[in-house]
């Protein structure tokens, strides 16, 4: 059994906290929920490329964000699971020759799962394909555009993520 290091727990906790704070910023701007959402916190979904601690960090951050912003139980559970699934897939792509592929799992997973949450948990009257497009656009802005900027900023400092 592998021991979990203090660095791993610290990184996961910091990532979770950053996710919550950025979700609250997005929420205060009216961007964090609904059929058109641009969660600034989703840019953190590139972090599995740098540390495996991002997987639990993103999951817990999303879970706490959904709890604290008054989401429905379905959204809390399945929205958080969507983030967990995306983080695992992003982590699997961390060593790919095209490093920015780590931005795609959050886009795809959220495009598939979130429209059903919006439809069945919040009663959004739009069709599933339309919500797939709107959620996808928001995820591209958050994960691909902002996440790529974050990726390149962190890639220059990759050494700070390595565990001893």
UniProtKB/TrEMBL annotation:
It holds the Pfam family QueT. The chain crosses the membrane at residues 6-32, 44-67, 73-91, 98-118, 130-154. It comes from the Bacteria. Keywords: Membrane, Transmembrane, Transmembrane helix. PANTHER family: INTEGRAL MEMBRANE PROTEIN, INTEGRAL MEMBRANE PROTEIN-RELATED. This is Transporter. It comes from Acetobacterium bakii. The lineage of its organism: Bacteria, Bacillati, Bacillota, Clostridia, Eubacteriales.
């Amino acid at each position: 059994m592998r021991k979990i290091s203090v660095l791993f727990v610290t990184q996961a906790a910091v990532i979770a906290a950053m996710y919550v704070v950025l979700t609250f910023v997005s929420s205060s701007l009216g961007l964090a929920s609904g059929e058109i959402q641009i969660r600034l916190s989703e840019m953190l979904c590139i972090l599995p490329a740098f540390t495996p601690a991002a997987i639990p960090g993103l999951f817990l951050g999303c879970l706490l964000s959904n709890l604290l912003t008054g989401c429905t139980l379905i959204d809390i559970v399945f929205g958080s699971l969507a983030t967990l699934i995306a983080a695992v897939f992003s982590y699997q792509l961390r060593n790919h020759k095209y490093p920015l592929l780590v931005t795609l799992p959050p886009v795809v997973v959220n495009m598939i799962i979130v429209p059903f949450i919006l439809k069945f948990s919040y009663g959004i009257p739009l069709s599933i394909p339309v919500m797939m497009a709107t959620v996808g656009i928001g995820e591209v802005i958050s994960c691909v555009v902002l996440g790529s900027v974050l990726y390149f900023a962190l890639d220059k400092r990759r050494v700070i993520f390595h565990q001893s």
